[in-house]
């Protein structure tokens, strides 16, 4: 009986966990639970029960920024984040990974906070052979809770080679909150023996996935309601301790 009660309690926490994409523009608000989606829309692969939108964001053909808020509802004190891309008007296959990383939030209750990566590279074999400027695609964010549940959200994009069409990435839409720790950031193409789990890994090939956006301390804004949601810090500060060993695997804070 105790096992059953514990399991039900865990499932309750999982069902309430959600993620919001704040950049590129979110496909739509799927933070709802209704008769069609009794456990919440975000459980539905590939994009949380929402069809593609006509409000697409221009995104650099070689890759761009992704910002997300992982702490909606309960159940995400810890989580794995996967960011993938699917090619086409309404992709059903999101088999091109851009990155994955582990987050540790301040609480298992709902918490404010944003994580942003200013530049995620589209794999070279994709943008050099499978896409061109003007092609459509979708960025998929998957948040895997500690109990194993996956939450799905998407942003719809148009690839472009014209920087003037891309919305500016700056301190208002790409920043990182002080109370969310990011670790074990993985980039596709890493050889199995080229990895490190902390910032004490090898110095060669050091790079900085989170570099490139300087954000002064300010009150963070909720992407859905516009309410105040905590404090943000410069991306450069969050990136301290995130290093690449062998060029592709980044250790943790």
UniProtKB/TrEMBL annotation:
It comes from the Eukaryota. Its main location: membrane. Residues 1-17 form the signal peptide. It is found in: Cell membrane. Residues 16-179 form the Copper acquisition factor BIM1-like domain. The keyword Cytoplasm does not apply. The keyword RNA-binding does not apply. The lineage of its organism: Eukaryota, Fungi, Dikarya, Ascomycota, Pezizomycotina. Keywords: Cell membrane, Glycoprotein, GPI-anchor, Lipoprotein, Membrane, Signal. It is a lipid-anchor; GPI-anchor. One of its GO terms (cellular component) is plasma membrane. This is Copper acquisition factor BIM1-like domain-containing protein. Pfam families: BIM1-like_dom. InterPro entries: BIM1-like, BIM1-like_dom.
């Amino acid at each position: 009986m105790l096992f059953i009660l514990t399991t039900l309690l865990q499932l309750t926490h999982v069902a309430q966990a959600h993620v919001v994409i704040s950049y590129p523009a979110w496909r739509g608000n799927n933070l709802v639970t209704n008769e069609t989606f009794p456990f919440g829309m975000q459980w539905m692969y590939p994009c949380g029960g929402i069809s593609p939108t006509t409000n697409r964001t221009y995104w650099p053909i070689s890759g761009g920024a992704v910002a997300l808020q992982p702490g909606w509802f309960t159940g995400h004190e810890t989580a794995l984040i996967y960011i993938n891309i699917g090619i086409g008007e309404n992709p059903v296959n999101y088999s091109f990974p851009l990155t994955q990383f582990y987050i540790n939030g301040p609480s298992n209750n709902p918490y404010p906070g944003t994580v942003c990566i200013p530049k995620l590279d589209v794999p070279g074999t994709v943008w050099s052979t499978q896409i061109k400027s003007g092609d459509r695609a979708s960025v998929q964010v998957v948040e895997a809770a500690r109990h194993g549940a996956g939450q799905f959200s998407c942003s719809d994009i148009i690839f472009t080679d014209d920087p003037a069409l891309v919305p500016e990435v700056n301190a208002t839409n790409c920043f990182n909150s002080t109370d969310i720790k990011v670790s074990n950031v993985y980039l596709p193409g890493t050889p199995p023996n080229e990895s490190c789990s902390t910032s004490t890994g090898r110095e060669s090939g050091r790079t900085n996935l989170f570099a490139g956006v300087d954000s002064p301390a300010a009150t963070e804004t909720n992407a859905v309601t516009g309410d105040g949601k905590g404090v943000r810090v410069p991306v450069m500060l969050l990136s301290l301790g995130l290093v690449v060993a062998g060029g592709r695997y980044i250790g943790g804070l």
